[in-house]
Amino acid sequence: MSLPASEIAYQTAHVADDRQANLIVASALCLAVAYVAVALRFTSRRVARNTIGADDCAILAGLFFTSTFVASVIVCVHYGLGRHLILVTNFSAFGKALLAAEILYNPAIFATKLSILLLYKPIFPLRPFVVILYITGTFVAPYSLTNV
Fold first, then answer.
1. What is the pLDDT tens value at each position of the chain, 148 positions in all?
2. How many angstroms separate the CA atoms of 13 and 84, rounded?
3. How far is CA 6 from CA 17, 40, 105, in A?
4. Fewer CB within 10 Å of terminal CB in the chain, N or C?
């Protein structure tokens, strides 16, 4: 990979810049909040004696894909994400981890959006609202599938 001389000079002058800790902390905190939210959701289902629905299955899928996405981001950090490009030594491993993160992002977002749409259906059973949910779902699904 070839960088312009001015970019190499800038990165060399700022070689101590490091955002790796920020990436790890932000990812870990957001993932922890997601786990707590899903745990509270299942706890409320249990307390209310409600059955597990399709929305719960979708959020579990979303949590799985989000967890694997965060894991791949942490692997990217190990290989140099959050630091300047001149400090990356293993471009092959970095590229593979980055590709994995990019691929896992869309299923994580899609499953979460689908879970929200499925959750709204029993909460707002009015026909016009359900029609809007189906219309929204018909846009969300193809958009997510084409971005994979």
1. 578 888 888 888 888 888 999 999 999 999 999 999 999 999 999 999 988 899 999 999 999 999 999 999 999 999 989 888 888 889 999 999 999 999 999 999 999 999 999 999 988 889 999 999 999 999 999 988 887 6
2. 11
3. 17, 51, 33
4. N
